[in-house]
Amino acid sequence: MCEDLEGVDLIRVALAAGGRHWVRLVRAMLAGSLMLVAISGAAFAGALEDSLAAHENGDDATALRLIRPLADQGNSDAQYNLGVIYFTGQGVARDAAEAARWFRLAADQGDAMAQYNLGVMYFSGVGVPQDRGEAAKWYGLAARQGNGNAQFNLGVMYQRGEGVAQNLDEAIHWFRLAADGGYAPAQYNLGFMFGNGQGVPQDFAEAVRWFRLAAARGDPDAQYSLGLRYHNGEGVPKDDNESIKWLRLAAEQGHADASSSLGAMYSLGQGVAQNHAEAAKWLRLAADKGNVKGQFNLGVMYEHGDGVPQNFGEASRWYRLAASQGDAAAQLNLGVMSRDGEGGPKDAAEAIRWFRLAADQGLALAQFNLGLMYANGLGPRDDVQADMWLSLAEAQGTPDARRNRELVERAMTSAQTAEARELARNWKPKPGP
Hints:
With 433 residues, the protein is an all-alpha fold.
């Protein structure tokens, strides 16, 4: 018989390691929602200027009546603005196909904003059939005229290989042009690429430089990334005070990862005085947005009564939300709660189910617990399974795993031991969803 399970629930997780956050994709492509929604202010006298004035006064019908003849006569500014009118439905029924027709007329005359808007429409399939190659073509025409949005989007397409052959050198070229023009999303993406060594030699200091430029412009992703760099001491000296500053700026803009990290630092007293109530506030903001670490850590706080009244039901609820996203630590803690009857009756089968989900992802404590469940007959007694899981936990350095494995093997035949060793050798982790 092996020793009973003791003290196997995880204590709260510290601020997530920076590396985890550097593998996410470059910021998503700009979409149709960022289409211009106002008539441009081109300095043309006469009807176009009168049309603009009518629009600014809320008289879209007059604006349309004045601008259409100019568009019909081939004036590219009027064609562009008429496209905006149809796209946004100002004084007319909204008609994306008609908007695309007018944008194309202006784009064919070299209007950069019309070219950019056509790129957005082809990328998203709004008003035209979706065609990433066409999107790249129009973005390219606008980008070569210095349009920062187009330069950024073209960079993303080269980075991902969408509509064009993947080419990280081209991606960096277009991001750099947009970034040098002060475009914060491009500055952030350059920071991402230097931080990951994507298309350039990895250079944390250069990553920090670009993140800092974007962060100074209020970009929350860059503020969050800069906060992580200060926390981890990557590209800058480790400084939790600076980390807190940048994480707070991002969190105050609703950045869920930043809220989660800020809550963890308040909980641990890193860079700030320890304050569990403040930690719970930030973790809840992150958890409510679906942030998996926020959900897990809020569950820990409810389980232990830190900053909130102890409530096993609430702890289980937040753990379950995190576990449903594949979080192995939450799955482990749900297993512990089911085993111990916290928040409900003891349920060995449910404990084994949760331990198995976490163990399958390679979490050593879950492998250790699962092995002990099988060894102690908490659920079905299975010495082969017990030996396999304890062996896997032992390989990761889990305290007491070897001693318990040896205890199990005293009751096993040589054939059973060989089977368990073979299962352990052939085991492969199964990543969560």
